Amino acid sequence: MKFILFLFSLITGHALALTLTTEDYPPFNIVDPKTQKVSGISTEKVSEVMRRSKEAFTITPYPWLRAFQLAQKETDTCVFSTTRTPEREASFKWVGPLVKNNWYIFARAGDTRSPKNLKELKAYSIGAYRGDAIAEYLEKNGFKTDLAKADEDNPQKLLSNRFDFWASGELLGLSILKRKNLSDKIIPILLFNQTEMYLACNLKTSQVKIDNYNKILQDMDKDGTNLAIENKYR
C-alpha cells in the first residue's frame, strides 16, 4: 500500500502524509471510544508541531504494541507518547520531550503495606501492561510481573488479587480509576520514577525533518504554546 501511495505521490507531486500512531493514555493521548478521534496534551503539541512545519499527517490509535511496532517497521511513521529509554534509543529518531510522566505504584485501599521504595516490593508481584516502558523496567530489574494486554484491565485484576500491586503512569492510573469509578478502592502509594515521553519516528525519517520538529517544539516552549496546552488539561 505504501509503495502505491509513493507512486501516487510521484505522479501528483504531493508528499506522503506522515502517519502518527498512538494509544489511549490520558491525559497525554485521549481516544474518544465512539469517534476514535485523539486529543490530549501530547496530541495537541504534536499536531501543532506538524501544523507549523506544514507537514501533512494522520493520527491513528492502536493497542500500544501495534502502535509501537508500526513506527519501528514503517517509513514515514512515528509513535507517541513514547518513553525514551536506553533500550529504545537506537530504534527511533526522537522529537521532544513532549511531557514528563511520573511512575507510581498503586495499591488496594486499606492495604497496610507501606513500601518506602521499589526495592521493598521485590517479594511481591506487580501488574503492568505488555510493551509498556514501566513493564520493561520492572522486568529488567528482576521484579515479578503480571502483564495485561491493556492497562485498563489492571485495576480489576488488582482487586481480584491477581497480583499484589499495580504500576502505572500517575495521571494514566488516576484517569483509569476515575473512568471505572474505582478511585475509592485503589490509591497511589509510591512514586518510583519520573521519565520523559517523546514522539518516536522511524529511523528512515529525514534528519532535517527531525531537527525542524525539535526546533519548533522548543519555539513552542518559548512562546507559551506548550504551557497553554498543558493548562487546558489540569
Automatic annotation (TrEMBL):
Does this UniProt record's set of keywords contain Disulfide bond?
no
Q: Where is the Solute-binding protein family 3/N-terminal domain?
A: 21-233
A Pfam match:
SBP_bac_3
Keywords tagged on the record: Signal
Keyword Transit peptide recorded: no
Tell me the leader sequence span.
1-17
User: What domain of life?
Assistant: Bacteria
Question: From which residue to which does any coiled coil extend?
Answer: none
Name of the molecule in the record: Amino acid ABC transporter substrate-binding protein (PAAT family)
- Native species: Iodobacter fluviatilis
The taxonomy runs: Bacteria, Pseudomonadati, Pseudomonadota, Betaproteobacteria, Neisseriales
